[in-house]
Structures are given as structure tokens and as C-alpha cells.
Amino acid sequence: MWQNNAWRRALEGIVVCDFTWVGAGPITTNILAQCGAKVIKIESKTKIDILRLGGPFKDGKAEGIERSGYFSNRNPNKKSIALNMSHPKARDVAIRLIEKSDIIANNFRVGQMEKWGLGWEDVRKINPRIIYVSMSLQGTEGPHKNYMGFGVNLNALAGFTAQAAFKGQRPFGTGTNYTDHVAVPTHTLFAIIAALLQREVTGEGQLIEVSQLAASIAIKPTDVMTYAANKEILGPLGYGDPNAAPHGVYKTLGYRKWIAIAVFTEEEWVALKKVMGNPKWAEDPKFSTFEARKENEEELNERIEEWTKWQYAEILMEKLVNAGVKAGVVNDARGAIEDRHLIERDFWVYLDHPVMGISLYNRAPIVFSKTPVQMKSAAPLLGQDTKEVLTEFLGYTEEEVNELAEEGVLT
User: Fold this and answer.
1) pLDDT over 90 for what percent of the chain?
2) Helix ranges, 19-150 (H)
3) 245-264 burial string, b = 16+ CB within 10 Å, else e?
4) From the DSSP assignment, how many helices (H) and strands (E) are in the chain?
5) Could you give the count of Cα atoms lying within 13 Å of 137 in the half-sphere of its Cβ?
6) 376/1 Cα distance (integer angstroms)
7) CA 31 → CA 95, 163, 203, 214, distances in Å?
8) DSSP states of 188-214 as a string?
9) Helix or strand or coil: residue 362?
């Protein structure tokens, strides 16, 4: 069961000791797993991954810890072992796994791994080749290193929330923990691959320390550079963009139907006018240049919506895109799942979960020509692979596993 497949994927043979939980960490290790790494997730019923308690739940029933679609989406292709790290003997099991691992990852509060005797200085002595990944909220050094938080806090600290508002109104936020889903996993995955390549040269692993806050700020330079260059605070954007006009979300025919339209160049503005039938109002000097359109943006958006509200979103999107105007239907979940483009690209995958049955997953948005990503198994039940991993991979006898279980180590 632990042998390589007949065909290899990009990270075939790489073993990941996964202490991550909730968001950014599990998304990172999920992608490693889809690329072929053996990811062994460490959990315990004494302190479960809290995402197991987060909805949506299969059939709307929040019974037990195995019905969370949220948890399942972030943890396919992984093995799960139940290991109670508060038990003195748990560290010995963790050490055996670390000795056979290439990567160890955590996104705990600073100091948690050290409490278990598994900080970087401890682990490097156990396995000098290991890549040690720490993904704390604000980094391991600095006055805020011990602060706790989740995506909603990071969105605020990084400046996303301040701009996600309409002028004169309170911020409404990004609608999702954008930092968890994009900024942190992206930077962490790049760092892991760079460290693995460096290990090929030196034979030694290294510590990767990712500040989730710094990773988030790094992908949004506009407001920072505006202040650095001009001492100007970039105000709330609403649906707008400093470099585009029109740029917004507009009503279309039907219940809760909208279309997003973005015009960045004069050529795109001319194309939009043509699709609209070159209405007389669009030739008014107040809309003749980008600067004029920005100055009269509120009226511009009202004029455009007066036109879009009589159009079908899907038909209008095709007309606009074919004319060279950036546009997209505002999809809800059903719209995204039924999108024929995503279906034809095999983005959606159905896997059989032991409790929830056939469940929908999205694969990593990566396409390799020779080493494809693969969705092999649904998210694991807590501890479902404990015996297999300990006996077949770590060399424990069945008697030893039973003894550890009786002592409360494997729970």
C-alpha cells in the first residue's frame, strides 16, 4: 500500500507530517497531496481540527465530527492518525514519523510545537533533511508574535477589510477569508518547493517561517504604495478599481442575477458602447475620457445598469467578451458547479466519503503535462489510518499499537 504507483506524480515519494489545522495549512498540504506527496494528518479526539465542526454539513445535520463539507474540501488525499500529543508517549510516535518525513508543517500559535519538544531546533536534530514549515499568524519574531487569530482578523490587519466598503459606510469585508485561501498557501507552497530544490544541492533541510500577515500584505501593493509615494490613504473601493471605469456589478434580468463588467482601456470603452448600441448618453463629454468617467462614476454606473437590467446575464457576458470587454456572470455555488467550462476541464471531482457518501471536491487548479494532480480519496475520518500508518510505515507491531491505544496515546 505504501509502494509508488506505476506512474509518478510530481511529489511522489515525499512524506509530509501534517500538524496543520483549519485553513491556510490544510489547503497547502492538500495541494502537496494532490501532487503525489503522502500527507499524514495528525489529529486527536481530545483536540480536533475545529473545522470538523464547521458547516455546511451533509444533509444539514451537524451530528458528530464527520459531516463537515468545509473540512472535507480542505483535506482529501490525506491519511489521518489519532495522536494525543498531551500524552508523554505521543512524542515518540511523532519522532518516528518525523524521521521518515521530508516536510513537517504547522500553523499553530507560536510556541505550541516547542511545548511538545518539536520546535525547529528539536526536529532538525531528529532529521537534518527535513523542511520545517511554520505558518503562524504574524511570524515567530516581533511584538505581536504571540497574537492569535483567523482569516477575518488577517483580512482586517492586512487592509483588505478597509477597502471592502462603500464610501461613507462601514466595511463589509471580503466575504471569505481570502488570506487563508490564496495569499498564505501560495507563498508557503513556493517556499516548500524552493527548500526541496535546495536540499537536492546541500542534502540539508531548513526552517521556513511564513508570517500569514506578511504574505497577505505582499499581494496587495496598491494601497501601500499610494501611501508610501503620496502620503495618501486609498479609500474604500466598493465595486470600483482605481484604474478602471466602468468597473462594477450590475443587475440583469432574473432573480438575484448580476454581471460584473470591467473597462480598463479606451478600446474597451468603445467596444462596450458598441455592444450597448452606442447610446447618446455615452457620447457626453462627462464620459469621454477615463478621468471624466471616474469623476462621474456614480452616474456612469446608473446608466449602465439601466441597460443591463433588461439583459440576460449569460447572453450578455458572451456578447461583451466576444467584443473584447472583460465581463463575467456573478455565479452562485450552483452556477460555478454547473459551469460547462469548469466541467470540461475536470475541475470538479466526486469522491466517496465513509459518512457523507458521494461528495463534491475541487481539484488543485494546476495542470501538468506529464505529472498530473490526482484526487484519490475523500477526506479521512479522524484516526482512520492510525493502525495502517503505524504498522506498515512506522514499523510498530500490532501489539504495540494496541497497547498505545489502551494507554490513551492513539485517541
Assistant:
1) 91
2) 24-34, 69-74, 90-99, 112-115, 120-126
3) bbbbbbbbeeeebbbbbbbe
4) 19, 11
5) 21
6) 13
7) 24, 30, 24, 21
8) HHHHHHHHHHHHHHHS---EEE--HHH
9) strand
- Strand ranges in 159-271 using DSSP code E only, listed in sequence order: 207-209, 247-251, 258-262
The Cα-based distances of 277 to 307, 317, 355 in angstroms read 10, 15, 55
64: nearest Cα among 46, 52, 77 = 52
**pTM flag (> 0.85):** yes
* pLDDT value of position 222: 87
Are 212 and 142 spatial neighbours (Cβ–Cβ below 8 Å)?
Answer: no
Percent of the chain with pLDDT over 70: 98
Neighbour-count burial for 42-61, b at 16+ CB within 10 Å, e otherwise: bbbeeeebebbeeeebbeee
- For residue 39, count CB atoms less than 10 angstroms from its CB and return exposed for 0-12, middle for 13-18, buried for 19 or more: buried
Joined grid coordinates for residue 337: 458547479
Quote the CA–CA distance of 270 and 272 in Å, as a whole number. Answer: 5
Model confidence at 7: pLDDT above 70: no
- Whether 18 is a known active-site residue: answer no
- In the set 180, 284, 332, 352, the catalytic residue is 180
- Between CA 378 and CA 397 the distance in angstroms is 27
SS3 content of the chain, % helix, strand, coil (to 5): 40, 15, 45
Regarding beta strands 326-329 and 258-262, do their DSSP bridges make them parallel or antiparallel, or are they unpaired?
antiparallel
Q: Give residue-wise pLDDT tens across range 61-111.
A: 999 999 999 999 999 999 999 999 999 999 999 999 999 999 999 999 999
Cα-based torsion angle of the residue sequence 359, 365, 370, 371 in order, rounded to the nearest 10 degrees? -60
Contact 374, 398 (CB under 8 A): no
Please name the residues in contact with 253: beta carbons below 8 A apart, sequence gap of 6 or more: 309, 310, 311, 312, 313
Structure letter (DSSP) for residue 217: H
Per-position b or e across 314-352, b if 16+ CB within 10 A of its CB: eebbeebeeeebbbebbeeeeeeeeeeeeeeeebbbebe
Three-state DSSP class for residue 162: helix
DSSP state for residue 68 in the 8-state scheme: B
Torsion of CA 402, 404, 410, 411, to 10 degrees: 90
Number of Cβ within 10 Å of residue 298's Cβ equals 10
